[in-house]
Amino acid sequence: MGYTHITGLSSSLPTETIRLPLKYSSDWYQNKDTNLGQNAEVGGFLPTDNTDSAITAIYYRVLSDFRTIYLTPITETHSSLFAEHRQIKVELPRKIFNRRTICFQYTSLALLNEPQVAIDLLDEDYLFISLLFRLENFYGGSKSRISVENVIDWAHISVPYSFELRSEPYYLTALDHENLIITLKDSGLLHFKRKAPLGDFEIFNFSNGPSASRKLFNNIFLSLKLSTRGSDLSSKTTVEVLKVNDDQLLALSLDKSLALYNIRHHTIEKIYTYLWDGKEALSPLRYLQDVTHSPSARRFILSMGSSVVCENDTNNKYVSLTVLEILRDSITLCDHLNSVIPVPAVFKEKSNLDGIVYVDDVLAYLTRDVITLKVLWRCNSFTIFSDHELDPLTGSTKSIGSSVGIAESLSSLKSDDWEPKSLPNLLWESGKYDIDIIRSAIHIFFEAPTCDVARIQASEIIAFTETRVSTLSASIGVSPKSLWLKFHLVCEELRRSGQKPLSLYLVSGMVMCAQMNGIGIHRKSHFFEDISSNCASSTLNAILNVLKARVSSSTMRQIRKFFESPNVLLEDRISDFAQSILMGKFCEAEIGMVLEKIDTNVLSLIHQLSAKPIIDVEQDFERSADNLSTFSKLYAINTFRSVIESHRSFLLHVAILFFMCEINSEIVNVLRRIHDYLSKYNILERMFETSFCDNNALSLEKDSIRRLDLSVFWWIVGDRENLVNRIKKHEMVEAFDVVCHSFLTEEFDILISSLILRLIDCDEWDFAHENFGMYLNVANQQQRYIRGILSLFMGNFEDFGTYCTDPAIMSTLRESRFFSRVLPNLSPQSRFKSIFHLAHAEVQNADEWLPLYFHSLSQLCVGYSSSGSLPSVARPKFIAQAVLLESNAVKLFHKSSNQPPLKHQKNLFELSLKIRNFEGSLEALESILTQVDRTHLKRLFFDLLSCIISSNSQNLLFETKLSRYLARHYNLIDSTLLEIANDDLVLWRSLKTYQVLYAWRIRGSVALCNNSFGNLRGALESLYIFITRFRMEKELFKKVGKAWADYRRFKLKILELYMIIINGVRSLKNEDERWIRRQNGQKFEIVDINTLTSEYLGWLQELEDELPTSIDV
Length: 1113
Hints:
By secondary structure, this protein is α+β, with helices and mostly antiparallel strands. Among the domains are: about 1-30 and about 40-160, no CATH class; about 420-500; about 535-745, no CATH class. Helix content is about 40%, strand content about 20%. The strands form eight sheets. Strands 19, 20, 21, 22, 23 and 24 form a six-stranded antiparallel beta sheet that branches. Strands 2-6-5-4-3 form a five-stranded mixed beta sheet, with helices on one face. A four-stranded antiparallel beta sheet has the order 1-31-30-29. The longest helix has 30 residues, at about 630-660. This is Nucleoporin Nup120/160 beta-propeller domain-containing protein. InterPro entries: Beta-prop_Nup120_160 (IPR059141).
């Protein structure tokens, strides 16, 4: 049987804390954080039978402080009714009387108006507390809130006893929501009856039972407590109660006698003889198991002893199993069904076990036509589960198998076995340690106060721990690596102690185990976990055990690294590595002895272990409409990991076995299959350890402990319809085969591609390159394409161009449906959505989609160039790449005799401007001319000329190469330059544009076309516009102190401009032509040479008057 540990379910859900309307002492508030790191003392599950609810069961725990109760919903699919599930935490003001004076029950819809979870308990002050929670209280969006204001709806507190409680209570159980039974240590039996789960009690004392000692409890209402809390129990103390029907109950006493009581009359009807032989020193959690055998409609009660009996003659150890049958109103002992359950052989094999072996719990349930028994055995801290079948018709019993309840310890690890970064990564990324374990480890290892540790937020836990390790390392002179190892071992020990089983339950067809800090699930084992069904298993295991004993952990790490590498395994490389690994570890004789044991059956088994899994149906690409719950995701991934770890161990030791052989082609093929498995397992585990921050899947978690339910796996692989269906059916072995088949077949191309694109969408291209990029095989066209995309974001434009822009390769990828298969895995906001949607469209021929594809690639580069994570110095390179791609798109349009769409040409024009590629901008502008009106064209020229001037590239306007083109738009450029100058609010910057306009007009439509002369008057007028503008705005300079220096420089510049204008006007031949125009409002007026001269002299005089001031300054 397989066994899966689930850690972190509780910490992954939001928690609503509830306190009762009672007085909480000052000591309680001071110590309210002391339950940090406490494990559960009581735990179990309440299966729900409400098919309308997404909640399958309620997982309850009572912590070891006996004041804290957790109720955690177990769901298999994510509910769309509410935002999220939540757990409820109840904080009691005083301790529960003992671990058996609290009971939990689920009340179904058929009995009350709605399904509810009921808790009844006795605290140390003998208060009887009843709590009631609706299932809707476990939804985050529930309108039904739990608060002190509506306490009557969810709590009832009473002191219902007078003289009935004559000795200490020992056991509290519920027959149903109306009837509760309390057993007393002196053998008394009380019936607490109520009409509703929160109603007042009527108390009845069962009579005609064994005599009880009369330690009267005189006045409970005066809070007079019993003088002692002795642990001694009467031999007649009832230890378990089972409801037979509405009128009868069955009570088992400590002396192993059964009593049948009448509930209505509170009388004893019959006492049955002892159930077991031998002395019972220890008591299991449950003695009586009620099972109805459906085929025969017979109802059985199974009772198992807890202490092991040893046969003197055979030395076989076992516990006895007694079976009774309920016949109407009587109980009959079924002698032919009584049998013994043997102690698992592992207790004999474990030489380091020194303690008493006993049964801690047993679960009986119907499987097909037989009764299955799941037995929890314990010896000190070691636990194991065994499975047995009982046929009620024949009485035959059969042992099925066993599984270990707690993982093996890592205490033997040494610091040298780990790389410096691997231990912290294991803590944060593996998902094996939730935040509660980490907080407890911080409290223990760093001796940090519990109140301080409890306040550490999830987003701060990594930084806090790393800081503490660095500080401690510096203060005591111990290496950080050594401290991380010790801290990890503390975490591991806390994890292992939290795996201690408490009780067994059948939930939704699953055998679930409540652990001290987590959940265990019994399941069918995978062949990769248990090869015992194969006839050659014992031989192979014996061989592998020899290898395990001789090969160190450091050597195993080297072998694992060798097989997990992405490099292709060549025969020479295998031979060299095998020689280096085995050197000095085995002599020739030992190798010969090992190889002699390998026969055809062993080889066949090895081939099965390295063969690709076969699944029933073809892998689909449809996404599932149902979202799996957090519980289902944790269950699945932890199961997959368990299978992977077991299979990897097999394969690594099988590889060592083949290293001993002479390497030939057949062995190389097997080793390559092992390499394929282990390298893909490495990728899969890295996917498990890479998680998003939340369900929006927009960014990776970096600051807190990774959550397996938010692993990228669920966005890449885990939401396929056939995989989801198997997980929902709890078919984890089959689900693993689906995943494994996906990674070992052609679909791996789609998965690795989807994964890397997802990471790039999260701006994690460096992470994708570092962790997954090496697994991209450039010999594979699909993976080579993704390598090209990743190269783009890594700044490798050469590989990007080689792998992503070859039309022939693109056509091949389209034909293989690569784009359509990856497209569903992309996020809705993916930057690759348009590319893949376009490339997979089937209605377009190459002439239509290829130019659009290059345009989409160009847009991809543009989008990345504006990313905040990209250094500003690198952005021009990506714009240049975008220009190249957009240019290719335009060329392909021309090549296909299609006119390029205007948006592509405008895009090329704008991108060229961004990188100051003015020649390219002009080429794009020329192709746009016939497609836009003059207003639009002027706006484009405005952008072009503004960019040219701002980059100090105005000389381009007068270079011969561009002049011929520009001359055709002389007037448009003229008016555009004037608009740019006039619109520029920065006076000094506008002067530069006026001067460019002056030069433009001087050259005319130029010497450009050799058929015209420059416009001298217009050129002079452009300078005079600036003078006029300065005269109007000069007062603004005087009002701003910092602008005073600029003001003085401008005055000198104005004087220079006057001289240029006057000399230019005087150069005109005719005196009548010696004038320029000046705009005055909506009209123009003439300014002659005399007026210009007068203005010049006046300006000169003003400048001379200010000169002394200027000198003083």
